[in-house]
Model the fold of this input.
Amino acid sequence: MKKRLLALGVATALGMSAGVASAMQTEPSGIGMYNILPYYSVQSGNNTLIQITNTDEVNGKAVKVRFRGAEWSDDVFDFTLFLSPGDVWTGAVTVNGLVAHMDTVDNSCTLPANINQDFVTFRAALSEDSNAATREGYVEVITMADIPPTVGGDPEEDLYDTILHHNGEAACDSGVLTALTEDSANVAADQGMENPTPALTSYAIVINVPKSKAFAQAAIAVNPDSVNNKIYYMQKNVEINPADLAELQALTADRIFAAQGAPDNGVGLQMYQFDLPDLTTPVEGGTAIAQRDSLTDALAQNGDAVVEYVTDSAIDATTDVVFTQPTRRFFYNYIENADGAYELNGWTFDIEGDAGSVYDSLDGVSNRIAVGNPTFYDREEGKLVGEDDIVISPTPPNVALTFSLKGEASVISINNGAIPTGSLAASLTANNYETNLEAPDGWAILSTTTTSGTVGPLPIVGFTAINILNNAVGAAGTNYGMVLPLRQREYVAP
Done:
């Protein structure tokens, strides 16, 4: 707790916060108002199975589910999910040609009514390959509102009753669901919605059936200290046009929707109702920037990840470590650049991080943030430290970023020799750390702390995926996929 308060104090001193926001905290129980799934993939034969559970036995939930690409957190698929009390939604992310695809036979109500669709590419505005951008990333699950019970409701007129399962089926009356309107004015009690409360738990399994691999991950749950309003927005392409940056930041900290050029530092991308809410949409007083900083502080708890690795070739062992940064996108500034790193809406720009934040040294051209040197130990106290002992592939394009995290959902593979990685088959944001320790197994300290600009711990969620093949028992049932939670040590300021 003391570390958390200290981090808040530093953030305030650096001018990171704006206004008063509800303090965000991670929830050890795994049940929260926000769920963050660190990784999904449909690369190289992978599918991803997802389950979202409403543990509230009284109230239904209106939920925003958003898939973001691994490179730039582009919104590559989102929908509105209505969970009745005690309800469970399940779905699978598969691949259709070059793009990810949603498959579900679940009876819970959604908007749109049919979400068995390809992921979208038109919102992958920052990715060079918009199809590839859909195939790896992470997932936001956001409770927008509670749906309290009503007595004797008509499913054709009553929200609670139309999402409630009767004999295993929900009516999902489209007239009721599509009539729900934006709740930015903090009204909508007459629509059958109340302020959201924490009750969601989620997990995902990256599964590769041909290779008999499966890696299960529990969502990171986050709760605000207090909630003053619902954050329901329509799942429609209805335009939202904030008058200025201050009005935009009452909705989101995502500056891609801000006006082009200084002082707004956006690119003027048109915002629609379906773009909201995101993780920064305020649930309390204050601005989206304040909520961004509070959530960042909650996730930036420590500076180094302690991970075990197994890479023994005799058992075809592979180890990948996922580091996802769910608030990184909300620190982007889009700066005019005559050299043309990116082009959107007819405007050429580069990406820089907010001054005074842990992202102020972000290299937008290489899509990397510098971190400290790793330390590797084998199982017999052998030790490697730093860049002289470890080869990185592919080599980062900027020598100043020798050790760095690429993109939003970064995957570090250990002793894999090449990309894609061995366990998860990650490629978009992957790096391989190749050590010259003779022993192939051991443990490592992987830095998640910035080393230039504002030095400090990054907001990280993730896990370690280890795969082992037992060749001694034949072809069937020989692969073992294991997931270890991300364990981080206390950050000590330099």
In short: Helices lie at 2-13, 159-163, 174-178, 245-248, 288-299.
